[in-house]
Every structure is written in structure tokens, then in C-alpha cells.
């Protein structure tokens, strides 16, 4: 069994704040983390490794500092960690990202499973998983909350729906995108951290992967960011002042005036 | 992005503007790091004109035929479950009509399923001019691969200029695979769509960074221009059941290769009664409620108002109320007539989910809380004190009727 886990290093968006004066993002001091759902994908792979033996490879594309995320994956127990990093990869949208990852995976040889998180918290697109499955020409199952490997080379899964879930069976190799309901990720052990530092991360540049230069990075991205802006949602707030009695009375009057208390009127 | 070192003075003005921390100062000159996404946010921060945008060469992804002129029509995907259209389909048709008017073209819906032809009338009523209908027993319930196969065939034959899908769990499973197969780009979870008046291309605006930043994305050289659209954001039009249109039927042999995945069983879990998207009044609680008891007080007011209870992520993460009540970037996007935020400071992720509400009331102890910036009425006070008195007022009002 060979499992490839695709992970992304992301800024912890729950820590991102807006500077109220300038309206810009305050990014200093925002920690970089393994994308939370990717951590669940790592755990799923390591659980399979613990139960029936598997070689687990963590793969990431990103700037050189994304090495930290892969070192953490090694410390959790993956067997190999590969970082795709090159200026030529930069500025990739999900189409170019999935192409680059797919070419790297093809270079790694045969595999049984590709696992990744449903979506990354910095982009929230949930696109790279399905696009990667398309390029690898394997089935995809998204929103996976339970994985059960069957002896005949198939896999039975629970796939979360808006209300409830469905039970899906698919042939391997396949790609699954996972959600946090799947498991509780382990923490790296001290031994794991030592091993990770000793072993280190393999770095592949655009020269190490069979990629068409026209299909990677900014150049290979069909979509372009035309502009970014901080959302404006300003309204003129009427502050109701006075005692508790006065402010609540004022509020009820205003809402009545605006015909917003219809439940009371009927 | 590119820095012209001759013009750069190393003033650092661009550093603060970059949402990705992708600019650094090396030897007193700005330098663009690998994390740059070419978003252009820094462009007008430079007073010396030292920043240039690397223009797209137009030679992207050669597997695609670069002739946008031969593509026409605004298509939407008519997502249906057991013969009922998803609510987002009506919203997509509303948005598609506006785009079609600007592009002077037609609106079409792609309808896939088994014995679903009756839905065409509803699609016409909500604004479709044409329905592309593919019926097959293998399409009865959704599976990624057969649906991707059929839609790719339709796109190849009819060449739509724009193709919109709902950013529902189904749409977000299907759209990326379809976009990759037909060799075009895809923008996820858009909250705003418009046509660029000069370039005539689709401007797709979406939140990024958990709603901290909005990005407008284009797909200039590939067709169709594809996007998934967040449910609950676009306005549907009043249905007109006298409208009719053309039904274009196609049938395809679905290759067995597309049937590698089987759905064995669908387990419906107890339907929740929380329906935030359709609520006319929502009263929502956050960290300021202090615990589950706080929500009890809130529920009392909710009952009196006929309101649905919402919550911020902080309250849900603390376990005070279940996740199906969550409003915001990672929860539901809501648009009630009245939204009352109680003890919610207004993290940008929360604002992203409720800022389009008709009237917004904020109750919070901190007068500086960002929630007041988006509110129509504000009360600075402790929700534990305000809510019981508000309940009292509403109750006496009820007696008066």
C-alpha cells in the first residue's frame, strides 16, 4: 500500500486581523500551520499505516518555508516528504497547482491512495483535490468522514452530505478529500521530531519534475487575480442611548416603524 | 509583479499593502518574494511607479482553443435532488439573466437526471431561454464522474461563454473536475458577478482569507468562464410560468469507466429545524452570551419575534449551540429582513455571512466593536441585561395587540 498525502502550509486565518485605521491586513505574527483538514488527511494515512502497513509520502507545493509543514508531517510519522518549490511554480491557480502536483505524483510511480483535506483555509476553494483526481484519471470522493479498506482492492467510505451522509464504494487507486469528522490528528512525538530533522525534506524544483513550463505557475493559470480589496460593509449606525428601559423602548419603536415586528402583529 | 530597481527608493510603502507579505527589502530595494500571487494590490501603493504587473502572455494552457468569439450563452447547472431543483438554481438563473442582458445572449440551464423533464417549465419560469436535457438512469442520483462526462460533452458541443454552478457541496465536487476536463479556469464561491464593460469578460468576486479580503478574478483566455456561486447571495427573479423556451435533448452512452464509484446507501440524518437561509428574522449570539444559559435568554426573545436563532463561530466552537446555527464565512450566508447580533464583536468572517441583511441591530458591551460599523441600530450594553428587558417590552406589546 502506498499513500500520497497532499498538504498545504497556510497562514492561520483565524489569527488574521484588520488594522482599523488603514484597513489593511495585519499579518505580522500570524503563524503558518499545516492546513487543518490536511492534518486529518495525514492522520488517515498514518492510521492505515499503523493498521495494515503502508508507505506514506507527504507532498506539498509552496515557498521554501513550507518545508516546516513537511517536517511536521515527518515528525507525525510519514515516511518521505517532498517539497515542490521553484519561482516558476509561483502564482499558480488551482488548475496549475493540480497539474504540478499530478506530474510529481506520476513521477513517484504507482500508488493506491491520494489523500488531502477538503479545502485550504486561506483560499477555501476545495478545487485542487477534484482537479488532481481528474488529471490522475482516478475516482474522487469528497467530504470523506469514514474510510474502510476492503480486502478486494475497493474501499468503502462515508461521504458527508448537507443532511446525513452516503455510503460510497470505489475502486483503488482513488483520491479522497477529508473533513475533520474523520479522525483526531496525532501530535508529533519527540522521537518523531528528531527523526524528521535527521531525515529532512526532499526538494524538487521545476527541473526535477516532468512539467510543461507553459502549464505551471502564473503562466499556466487560466484564472488571474485582477484586484483585491478589503471588503467595505459600513452603515451609519444609530446608537441608542439612555437607560436600559429607554434603549429597548427606542429599539422596539424603530422596529415597529420599519414593520419588522410582524410576528407580534399577527 | 516586478520591481524596477532604478525607480524603487526602498520606502517600504508597498510592504504594508501586500496581503501576502510577499515583498521584502533587500539592499534598500523592494524585492518580490515567491509567495507573490500577482494580485496587483501593491501597484498603486508606489509613488514612484517602480512596481509593474507581469501581464499574462496569453499563451496559457495550450490544450485549449483560444477563440472566445465562438463561445456564447450564459449557462447554469440545474442541480436537482430527487426531482426537486436546489434553491441556488433559481438564484443562478436570476444572476444569469443580468449577465445575458449585458452580453446580449441567451440563458440556458443544463439539466441532468432520470425522468426530470418536467423541471424544464420551472427553469423557464425563473429565466432560462433554453434547457439542455440529458436523461439517463445512471444520472438518477449524483455521482461525480458520469455528471462530469455528460456536462463536458455538452460544453464541447454547444460552447457556452459562461457556466455557473451553485457552490453547494455537489457543485463544489463537480465544478473543479469539469473545469479541469474542459481545460478552463474556475473561481470558487463567488459572491458577486459582473461583466467588464471594456473587456466583456466575467468579473468574479469572491472572499479570500476567511473573508478578510475580497478578490476579483477573471479568466481571460479560456472558455467557458466558470464559477461556483455562493448560495443565498444572488437575487432570484419572480417566476413567470407563462414563459416558455426550447428544450434541447441529448443522449449519451455513459462509459463504464465513469461508473467506478457506487453509492450504496444514503442515510438522512434527522432534519434539523434550523433554516437560517430562509428566515426573515434572525437573532444571533456570540461570545458575549457567556455560555449556553445566554442562549436561553436569546431563545426567549427569538420566540417573541418569531426569529430563528443564529450564532457566531466563537459560540459554536465553545459548544454553546450546535453548528447548524452558525452564520459566517464557514457557516451560513444569510439575508433576513432583520438581524439582531447579541454579544457578537463582528469578526470579518461573521460579517461576511450577514452583511446583506435588511436591517441590522447590534448589542455589545464594547462601543468600538466592529459589528457597530455594519449595524443600523446599536445598543452599548450587556446582553444579559438588555435581552430580558427587551423580552419584557415585546411581551407587553404582544398583549396590546
Describe the protein.
The complex is a heterodimer of chains A (266) and B (401). Chain A is built from seven helices and 15 strands. Chain A has two domains: 2-215, Rossmann fold, CATH 3.40.50; 235-266. A nine-stranded mixed β-sheet of chain A has the order 11-10-9-12-8-1-6-7-13, with helices on both faces. With 266 residues, chain A is of the alpha/beta class. In chain A, helix 3 (94-107) crosses helix 4. Chain A starts with a strand and ends with a helix. Chain B is α/β, with parallel strands linked by helices. Chain B folds into three domains: 2-52, 2-Layer Sandwich (Alpha-Beta Plaits); 68-259, HUPs (Rossmann fold); 276-400, Rossmann fold, CATH 3.40.50. Chains A and B meet through helix 3, helix 4, strand 9, strand 11 and strand 14 of A and helix 4, helix 5, strand 11, strand 13 and strand 14 of B. Strand 14 (224-229) of chain A pairs antiparallel with strand 14 of chain B.
Summarize the structure.
The complex is a heterodimer of chains A (266) and B (401). Chain A is α/β, with parallel strands linked by helices and 266 residues long.
Q: SSE layout and pairings?
A:
The complex is a heterodimer of chains A (266) and B (401).
Chain A (H helix, E strand, L loop, with lengths): L1 E5 L2 E3 L5 E2 L6 E2 L5 E3 L1 H17 L2 E7 L5 H10 L3 E5 L9 H14 L5 E5 L10 H9 L3 E10 L4 E7 L4 E7 L2 E5 L11 H10 L2 E3 L19 E6 L8 E3 L3 H14 L4 H4 L1
Parallel strand pairs in A: 1-6, 1-8, 6-7, 7-13, 8-12, 9-12
Antiparallel strand pairs in A: 2-5, 3-4, 9-10, 10-11
Chain B lengths: L1 E2 L9 H5 L5 E4 L2 E4 L18 E2 L21 E4 L2 E2 L2 E2 L1 H17 L3 E7 L5 H7 L4 E6 L8 H15 L3 E5 L2 H14 L3 E5 L1 E4 L6 E7 L4 E6 L6 E5 L16 E5 L10 E7 L13 E5 L6 H14 L2 E4 L1 H5 L20 E5 L5 H7 L4 E6 L12 E4 L2 H18 L1
Parallel strand pairs in B: 5-8, 5-10, 8-9, 9-16, 10-15, 11-15, 18-19, 18-20, 20-21, 21-22
Antiparallel strand pairs in B: 1-4, 2-3, 6-7, 12-13, 13-14
Helix pairs in contact in B: 4-5, 6-9
Amino acid at each position: 500500500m502506498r499513500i500520497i498525502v497532499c498538504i498545504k502550509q497556510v497562514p492561520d486565518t483565524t489569527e488574521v486581523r484588520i488594522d482599523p485605521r488603514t484597513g489593511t491586513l495585519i499579518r505580522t505574527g500570524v503563524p503558518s500551520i499545516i492546513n487543518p483538514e490536511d492534518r486529518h488527511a495525514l492522520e488517515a494515512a498514518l492510521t492505515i499505516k499503523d493498521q495494515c502497513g503502508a508507505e506514506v509520502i507527504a507532498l506539498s507545493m509552496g515557498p521554501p518555508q513550507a518545508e516546516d509543514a513537511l517536517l511536521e508531517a515527518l515528525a507525525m510519522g510519514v515516511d518521505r516528504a517532498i517539497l515542490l518549490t521553484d519561482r516558476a511554480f509561483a502564482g499558480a491557480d488551482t488548475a496549475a497547482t493540480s497539474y504540478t502536483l499530478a506530474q510529481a505524483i506520476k513521477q513517484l510511480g504507482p500508488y493506491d491512495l491520494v489523500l488531502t483535506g477538503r479545502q485550504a483555509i486561506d483560499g477555501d476553494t476545495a478545487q485542487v483535490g477534484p482537479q488532481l483526481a481528474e488529471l490522475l484519471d482516478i475516482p474522487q470522493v469528497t467530504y470523506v468522514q469514514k474510510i474502510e479498506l476492503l480486502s478486494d482492492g475497493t474501499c468503502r467510505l462515508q461521504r458527508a452530505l448537507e443532511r446525513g451522509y452516503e455510503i460510497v464504494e470505489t475502486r483503488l487507486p482513488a483520491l479522497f478529500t477529508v473533513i475533520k469528522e474523520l479522525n483526531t490528528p496525532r501530535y508529533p512525538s519527540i522521537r518523531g521530531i528528531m527523526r524528521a530533522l535527521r531525515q529532512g525534506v526532499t526538494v524538487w524544483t521545476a527541473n526535477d519534475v516532468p512539467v510543461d513550463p507553459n502549464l505551471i505557475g502564473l503562466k499556466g493559470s487560466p484564472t488571474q487575480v485582477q484586484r483585491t480589496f478589503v471588503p467595505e460593509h459600513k452603515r451609519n449606525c444609530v446608537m441608542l442611548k439612555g437607560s436600559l428601559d429607554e434603549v429597548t423602548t427606542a429599539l422596539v419603536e424603530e422596529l415597529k416603524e420599519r414593520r419588522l415586528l410582524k410576528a407580534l402583529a399577527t | 509583479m516586478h520591481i524596477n530597481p532604478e525607480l524603487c527608493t526602498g520606502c517600504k510603502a508597498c510592504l504594508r499593502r501586500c496581503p501576502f507579505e510577499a515583498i521584502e527589502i533587500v539592499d534598500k530595494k523592494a524585492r518580490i518574494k515567491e509567495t507573490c500571487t500577482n494580485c496587483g494590490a501593491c501597484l498603486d501603493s508606489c509613488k514612484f511607479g517602480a512596481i509593474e504587473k507581469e501581464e499574462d502572455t496569453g499563451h496559457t494552457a495550450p490544450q485549449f482553443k483560444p477563440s472566445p468569439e465562438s463561445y456564447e450563452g450564459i449557462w447554469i447547472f440545474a442541480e436537482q435532488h430527487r426531482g426537486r431543483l436546489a434553491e441556488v438554481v433559481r438564484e443562478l438563473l436570476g444572476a444569469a439573466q443580468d449577465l445575458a442582458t449585458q452580453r446580449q445572449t441567451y440563458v440556458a440551464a443544463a439539466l441532468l437526471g432520470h425522468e426530470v423533464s418536467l423541471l424544464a417549465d420551472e427553469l423557464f419560469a425563473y429565466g432560462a431561454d433554453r434547457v439542455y436535457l440529458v436523461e439517463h438512469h445512471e444520472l438518477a442520483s449524483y455521482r461525480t464522474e458520469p455528471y462530469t462526462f455528460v456536462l463536458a460533452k455538452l460544453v464541447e458541443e454547444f460552447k457556452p461563454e459562461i457556466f455557473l454552478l451553485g457552490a453547494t457541496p455537489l457543485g463544489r465536487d463537480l465544478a473543479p473536475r469539469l473545469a479541469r476536463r474542459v481545460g478552463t479556469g474556475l473561481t470558487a464561491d463567488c459572491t458577486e458577478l459582473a461583466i467588464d464593460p471594456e473587456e466583456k469578460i466575467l468579473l468574479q468576486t469572491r472572499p479570500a482569507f476567511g473573508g478578510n479580503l475580497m478578490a476579483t478574478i477573471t479568466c481571460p483566455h479560456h472558455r467557458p468562464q466558470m464559477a461556483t456561486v455562493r448560495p443565498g447571495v444572488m437575487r432570484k427573479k419572480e417566476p413567470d410560468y407563462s414563459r416558455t423556451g426550447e428544450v434541447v435533448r441529448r443522449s449519451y452512452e455513459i462509459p463504464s469507466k465513469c461508473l467506478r464509484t457506487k453509492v450504496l446507501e444514503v442515510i438522512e440524518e434527522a432534519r434539523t429545524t434550523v433554516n437560517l437561509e430562509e428566515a426573515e428574522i434572525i437573532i444571533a449570539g456570540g461570545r458575549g452570551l457567556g455560555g449556553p444559559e445566554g442562549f436561553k435568554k436569546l431563545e426567549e426573545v427569538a420566540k417573541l419575534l418569531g426569529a430563528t436563532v443564529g450564532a457566531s463561530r466563537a459560540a459554536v466552537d465553545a459548544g454553546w449551540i450546535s453548528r447548524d446555527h452558525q452564520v459566517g464565512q464557514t457557516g451560513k450566508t444569510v439575508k433576513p429582513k432583520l438581524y439582531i447580533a447579541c454579544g457578537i464583536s463582528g469578526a470579518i468572517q461573521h460579517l461576511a455571512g450577514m452583511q446583506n441583511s435588511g436591517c441590522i441591530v447590534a448589542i455589545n458591551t464594547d462601543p468600538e466593536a466592529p459589528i457597530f460599523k455594519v449595524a443600523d441600530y446599536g445598543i452599548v450594553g450587556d446582553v444579559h441585561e438588555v435581552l430580558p428587558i427587551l423580552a419584557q417590552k415585546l411581551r407587553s406589546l404582544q398583549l396590546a395587540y
